[in-house]
Amino acid sequence: MQLEILTPERRVFSGKVYGLRLPGIDGSFEVLEKHAPLVAALAPGRMKVLNDKQNFSFYTIQGGFIEVLDNQATVLVEGAIPAEK
């Protein structure tokens, strides 16, 4: 799946990923390849990006939204910085 992480100032990440774990406003949830279309609000917290089935990275995000459509996920947040594992 193609992932874009965008803030008002810049593009934080763009590339192919296996999946995501996100902090939703009603609890965390995952998005994997070929996920059904989705729009969801995000709470501040840690987002886990699954680069493949074994490698992952984290981002600390501020509130925002995610849109999933046609195997592409767009994360629109107020701020995002890479975080330690």
Automatic annotation (TrEMBL):
UniProt domain ATP synthase F1 complex delta/epsilon subunit N-terminal: residue ranges: 1-80
**Main site of residence?**
membrane
Q: Where in the cell is it found?
A: Endomembrane system
- Which InterPro entries does the entry link to? ATP_synth_F1_dsu/esu, ATP_synth_F1_dsu/esu_N, ATPsynth_dsu/esu_N
- Its membrane topology, per UniProt? Peripheral membrane protein
The source's superkingdom equals Bacteria
Briefly, what is this protein's role? Produces ATP from ADP in the presence of a proton gradient across the membrane.
Homology family: Belongs to the ATPase epsilon chain family.
The subunit field of the Swiss-Prot or TrEMBL record says: F-type ATPases have 2 components, CF(1) - the catalytic core - and CF(0) - the membrane proton channel. CF(1) has five subunits: alpha(3), beta(3), gamma(1), delta(1), epsilon(1). CF(0) has three main subunits: a, b and c.
Protein's name according to its UniProt entry: ATP synthase F1 complex delta/epsilon subunit N-terminal domain-containing protein
Query: Species name for this entry?
Result: Compostibacter hankyongensis
UniProt lineage: Bacteria, Pseudomonadati, Bacteroidota, Chitinophagia, Chitinophagales
